[in-house]
Amino acid sequence: MTDLSAFPIATRWPASHPDRIQLYSFPTPNGVKVSIALEEIGLPYEAHAVNIGKNESWTPEFLSLNPNGKIPAMIDPDGPGGKPIGLFESGAILLYLTDKTGRLVPADPVRRYETIQWVFFQMASIGPMFGQVGFFHKFAGREIADKRPLARYRDESRRLIGVLETRLKGRSWIMDDDYTIADVSMLGWVRNLIGFYEARELVGFDDFRNVAAWLERGLARPAVQKGLSIPARG
Description:
This protein has helices spanning about 10, 30-40, 60-65, 90-100, 110-135, 150-170, 180-195, 210-220, 220-225, and strands spanning about 20-25, 45-50, 75, 85-90. By secondary structure, it is α+β, with helices and mostly antiparallel strands. It folds into two domains: about 10-105, Glutaredoxin (3-Layer(aba) Sandwich); about 110-225, Glutathione S-transferase Yfyf (Class Pi), Chain A, domain 2 (Up-down Bundle), CATH 1.20.1050.10. The protein has a four-stranded mixed β-sheet with strand order 2-1-3-4, with helices on one face.
């Protein structure tokens, strides 16, 4: 039987199936990236809900695996050399899963690096900007009288959607006909921007027909539909 006792996080969220990948997450745009990838790839895993509304990501057990205090985090009991490995940061986890399986990334080295650059585009640009739009448009930031921060993040988010719009012209997916971790990394964020964050009109999303069609294609995938609700919020 696989022993996860070296990982304190496994004491707070015990594994029923310690031989499977252990995912510690919550269904946010960053969280669902990994659940979607795991569903697409088909690796067996066990999902544990880390309730960010209750600040569970700031508990000592979670911080022992992810010192950044953000979801998700993951343990693979069958890591390199057959030894368990713990990982945090969703982009790093996506890259690890593709390296482990050869799935969701082009085999050609040049196209692989092109895919990775779009994952980094999400991590460095789309994620932070869309998150700020959510804060200033829907959450506590909307009470701030000075609307310049909202305008700044709105305009930058619109610019970033424009980057995607140009990239997706004549393409089904970010990497042409290859559905990859680049798509996985962004689908949840674009969905949240116009749905949960209620910013569709704010950013003029309907102007971006290529992005809208890409989002519709992505959300129609069974693995995406399932992964968007994993782990269950309870």
